[in-house]
From TrEMBL:
Subcellular location: Plastid, Chloroplast
Full protein name: Phosphoribulokinase, chloroplastic
UniProt xrefs under InterPro entries: P-loop_NTPase, PRK, PRK/URK
Reactions this protein catalyses: D-ribulose 5-phosphate + ATP = D-ribulose 1,5-bisphosphate + ADP + H(+)
Disulfide bond is among the record's keywords: yes
Pathway given in the UniProt record: Carbohydrate biosynthesis; Calvin cycle
Annotated source species: Gracilariopsis chorda
Cellular compartments per GO CC: chloroplast
Length: 433
């Protein structure tokens, strides 16, 4: 029998503007780029359909489930469980084995923007719910494993980045369970209220992405991951993006934004940043080198660092694998206005390990011309001629579509698709129209 469909936990209302020190937005809200209208709509829907508003726990029978190891670590997590048996969803959806991918970054560093590109490359959609779920992919935000609610963190005098503020025992047991094909009752950290809501049902899926501050922090969780991605923003870029988002869209003051970034820095450096050392791919976003003394930080230099020894990764390259290449296709091949665009590819070392670097500095004047560049990017895993260009053209106004950030995000999304295909031996079919 097919498992009963459990309504997804609805999006909660706007995160309180009353917490000006908060630097991140609800990943779900950002994931769908939800305008206030959407949030209101979702609240109205919930009111009109009370079942939607009910906690997911109410719809599931978990009598023969077991308490998840780690649930005892926090009174907020007491109801976190793991199914005793493999989920029927495995059979019903013909899941070979769930592929689990980690995406790590600080808050506001473009995880949601990247994950929208991922779903687009997989040709799939996800629900507008606390945990986005689709036929193929589920995206779990690891903020849900915060040990304390917002008030509790204040009392304990810890930031959300601190290891003590996260229940890694529970995270490890539940992500491991999903990989084994078992459903879980996962806690919910509610960014709107700062509270921990009753747990929700999450079933195994073909692809499960775990995103947030610490997907690779705990060895037990890291060992479960099939592929790991780290989004690494230079401080100047982080500040510029924060200013753009939090000042323009949320009415925060500049001083407030800067103070918040500064206050997170020590714990960011201690608990989040070190994860990048062991990642399969790292996307560095840096200020351009094409404009001397650039102050605007709108033109970006992007470096994709690909671990040469990663089991499932075949690094992309320009022209000739292993060579060092600097390429400026501006002129007859590409329309470029100042400062133009420059590509670089070559071997390098990153924390003592060999990596291939694919780098793009600057932007595209005409996105359609990207197809010329695409013909020179080798082993990108495209399924048809022009797939990268088509993917960027599908949403030309998305952040980064006209510069290297969008291009590198699409390349990383294709790597994730390759990893999925390698691990499962199944092909993902996509449409070229
Ligand atoms: N490639 C890009 N170029 C320019 N701006 C970008 C790019 N990617 C993301 N941004 C901007 O940065 C901000 C944060 O992006 P996003 O919401 O994707 O980050 P996030 O890591 O999911 O944030 P949070 O953890 O706070 O939810 C947004 O305002 C977005 O428009
Ligand atoms: O770094 C973060 C990741 O999103 C948040 O700051 C953390 O999850 C705490 O959330 P909030 O500020 O809403 O209490």
């Amino acid at each position: 029998m097919a498992p009963a469909f459990i309504p997804a936990t609805p999006l909660s209302n706007a995160r309180a503007a009353a917490f000006p020190s908060a630097t991140c937005v609800s990943p779900r809200r950002a994931f769908f780029g939800a305008a206030p209208a959407l949030r209101v709509q979702s609240a109205v829907r919930a009111a009109a359909h009370p079942r939607r508003a009910a906690p997911r726990a109410a719809a599931v029978t978990t009598d023969n489930w077991v308490k998840a190891p780690g649930a005892e670590n926090s009174h907020h997590h007491a109801d976190a469980k793991i199914a005793a048996n493999v989920s029927q969803a495995m059979d019903v959806k013909r899941i070979t084995r769930p592929v689990i991918i980690g995406v790590a970054a600080d808050s506001g560093c473009g995880k949601s923007t990247f994950l929208r590109r991922v779903t687009s490359i997989f040709g799939t959609e996800v629900s507008k719910s606390h945990t986005p779920v689709g036929e193929f992919i589920t995206v779990i935000c690891l903020d849900d494993y915060h040990t304390h609610d917002r008030m509790g963190r204040r009392e304990a005098k810890v930031t959300a980045l601190d290891e003590r503020a996260n229940n890694f025992d529970l995270m490890a047991s539940q992500i491991q369970a999903l990989k084994e094909g078992k459903s879980i009752m996962k806690p919910i950290y509610n960014h709107e209220t700062g509270e921990i809501d009753p747990p929700e049902l999450v079933e195994p899926n073909h692809l499960v992405v775990i995103e947030g501050l610490h997907p690779m922090y705990d060895e037990r969780v890291r060992d479960v991951l099939d592929f790991t991605v780290y989004l690494d923003l230079a401080d100047e870029v982080k500040v510029a993006w924060k200013i753009q988002r939090d000042m323009a869209e949320r009415g925060h003051t500049l001083d407030n934004i800067l103070a918040s970034i500064e206050s997170r820095k020590p714990d960011f450096e201690k608990f989040v940043d070190p994860q990048k050392k062991n990642c399969d791919v790292v996307m560095e976003i840096l200020p351009t080198e094409l404009i001397p003394d650039d102050t605007e930080k709108k033109v970006l230099r992007v470096r994709l660092l690909q671990d040469e020894n990663c089991t499932h990764l075949e690094p992309v390259f320009l022209y000739d694998e292993g060579s060092t290449i600097d390429w400026v296709p501006c002129g007859r091949k590409l329309t470029c206005s100042y400062p133009g665009i420059k590509f670089h590819y070559g071997p390098d070392t990153y924390y003592d390990k060999p990596v291939s670097v694919f780098e793009v500095d600057g932007g595209f004047e005409k996105l359609e011309e990207m197809v010329y560049v695409e013909t020179h990017i080798e082993r990108s895993g495209t399924k048809f001629f022009g797939e990268i260009t088509q993917s960027l053209l599908r949403n030309p106004t998305a952040p980064g579509s006209k510069n290297g950030t969008g291009l590198v995000q699409v390349l990383m999304a294709m790597m994730m698709r390759n990893v999925y295909e390698k691990v499962t031996g199944k092909k993902v079919s996509v449409s070229s129209s």
